[in-house]
Structures are given as C-alpha cells and as structure tokens.
Predict the structure of Putative enzyme related to lactoylglutathione lyase.
Amino acid sequence: MATVSFYADDVRAARDWYANFLDTEAYYAMPSQEAPSYVEFRIGDFQAELGIIDAKFAPHRVGDGPAGAILNWHVDDLEKTLDRLLELGATLNQGIVDHGDSGFRTASVTDPFGNLLGIMTNPHYLDIVAAVRG
C-alpha cells in the first residue's frame, strides 16, 4: 500500500478520531488545520499515507452505509486493536476470522464516518518487514 483515501463529511472530526486511534497527529492539512478539506497521516513501518478527504469530493455517495474497499492493516494484537476501535466508536463489520492454519486472521469495522477499516495479523507482512530490516 502507498496511499489509502477515506471520505468524511466532517474532516476535522475524522482527523481527530484517527489521530486518537493511531496515536499520531496528521502531518498535513489543506487548506488549513482549522478548516481542512484534506488531511494526511503517515502510518506503518513504511510510512504509507492515510488521507481523509471531504466527502463532497468523493466519486461515490458517502454516508449511506459502509463504503470503500477493505484494506487490511497489519496489527500486532488483533483482539486488542479491535477492542480499541470499538471503544472509540467504530462499529463491527466482521468479527475475527481465522484463515486456516496459516496465521492470517482478519476483522473489520466501520469508522464513525462510514469507511471500512480492515485489520489483520499477517505473517507474510512480518516476514517482509524482518527481511527489510535485515
């Protein structure tokens, strides 16, 4: 993943919610921090971009229910992360699913702004990170 874009009617509220969940502030806002129509975070081991865009710019209708592709983010503790997302106001889209004996496990939520957010335990991702780190 290089960039994922989510849409929200209230970009400022979405920025604050994701800052709380990710435990980091958005590093970029346009046109301003006080009245953003776009904000961006750097996330994960490779500092991928999470952009939140004002829903008025979405190429699809926003707000009629969960929307978007489910992009799964690797997390070290699936249960703890899922619990935290739910505590922060996300709603369960799909509970934890074990994908056989491979170690791959997924879950997904809908954030308070209608975006689908997937989380997973991904052994392949951990192998790649270990190889890159040497």
